[in-house]
């Protein structure tokens, strides 16, 4: 998808952004994964080497996809509006295909591992373990990965995955077993439309859909940006309102930032794919808000620049874009 920005991005154009770098994308990249039903496949997106600003080692962002209703976007084939944009802003972006991807067609796992949720954070930690292998498989990355500067991001179910890597835990109501998947190599995170508390916060249908789910954010200490749509209602999972999606901010210890996307539904204007039915709130402006706000947070977290502070100043004067909090 070409940049410059969409003509309909509106006030989102006021949010700070780096001049976009040209980007390459390679897929599938396959890393052998012993004792997994299939090897790990991923898409790699990064600034092209000829870009002057891209000759330094680049921070890494690993994104965990959601489980939407499409045949392809819940895999390495999705999320180009984020992967391409983040790469254009100076990151190497890795998007692995999780086991629950519709395109893989694997038999359903046991109820306690519904949607293969227990495998997902381990797949991302495995990818971090094998960054040297990735450089071998993708020569364009040779010597370009800043392996000490890693963030995770995730949308929807992928937000739950990211939260676990950031330090949250999940205790299964089925078995009473607590899963801990915190990866200390991850310096920061972006959680988009993540899931909130379980227990009484789940609707009757939610308890049937995710019987394994009861997350605890008390130990999610890694810095993170929680992004949620202020119109994101999820009655299939919860009887609560949009605030359920920012439980990861409300109940986790700081430092944390919250950005409520004005008018945003669960699709955030189209993060999962260009012009896709995956979203019920498609909007070039809303998508641009998510792109720029998340990228600014990542640039401050991984590059140490002032993009996040500049973004907050713009948002303060333009409440039509959203609202921010921090702690």
UniProtKB/TrEMBL annotation:
EC main group: hydrolase
InterPro entries (alphabetical): AB_hydrolase_fold
Transmembrane segments: none
This enzyme's EC code(s): 3.1.1.47
Highest taxon of source: Eukaryota
Gene Ontology biological-process entries: lipid catabolic process
Key words, A-Z: Hydrolase, Lipid degradation, Lipid metabolism
Molecular function per GO: 1-alkyl-2-acetylglycerophosphocholine esterase activity
PANTHER family on file: PLATELET-ACTIVATING FACTOR ACETYLHYDROLASE
Protein name: 1-alkyl-2-acetylglycerophosphocholine esterase
């Amino acid at each position: 998808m070409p940049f410059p920005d969409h003509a309909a991005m509106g006030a989102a154009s006021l949010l700070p952004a780096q001049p976009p770098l040209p980007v390459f994308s390679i897929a599938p990249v396959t890393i052998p994964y012993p004792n997994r039903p299939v090897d790990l496949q991923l898409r790699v997106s990064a600034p092209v080497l000829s870009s002057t600003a891209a000759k330094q080692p680049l921070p890494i962002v690993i994104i965990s996809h959601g489980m939407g209703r499409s045949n392809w976007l819940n895999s390495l084939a999705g999320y180009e509006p984020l992967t391409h944009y983040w790469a254009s802003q100076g990151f190497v972006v890795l998007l692995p295909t999780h086991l629950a991807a519709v395109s893989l067609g694997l038999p359903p796992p046991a109820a306690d591992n519904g949607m293969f949720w227990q495998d997902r954070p381990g797949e991302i930690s495995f990818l971090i373990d094998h960054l040297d292998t990735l450089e071998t498989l993708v020569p364009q990355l040779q010597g370009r990965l800043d392996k000490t500067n890693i963030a995770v991001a995730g949308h929807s179910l992928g937000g739950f995955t990211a939260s676990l890597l950031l330090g949250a835990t999940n205790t299964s109501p089925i078995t009473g077993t607590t899963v801990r998947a915190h990866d200390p190599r991850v310096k920061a995170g972006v959680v988009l439309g993540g899931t909130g508390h379980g227990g009484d916060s789940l609707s009757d249908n939610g308890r049937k859909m995710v019987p394994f789910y009861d997350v605890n954010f008390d130990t999610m200490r890694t810095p993170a940006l929680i992004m949620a749509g202020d119109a994101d209602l999820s009655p299939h999972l919860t009887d609560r309102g949009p605030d359920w999606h920012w439980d990861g901010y409300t109940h986790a210890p700081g430092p944390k930032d919250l950005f409520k996307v004005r008018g945003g539904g669960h699709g955030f204007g189209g993060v999962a794919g260009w012009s896709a039915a995956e979203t019920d709130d498609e909007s070039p402006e809303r998508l641009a808000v998510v792109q720029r706000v998340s990228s600014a947070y990542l640039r401050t977290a991984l590059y140490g620049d002032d993009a996040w502070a500049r973004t907050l100043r713009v948002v303060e004067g333009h409440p039509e874009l959203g609202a921010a909090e921090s702690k």
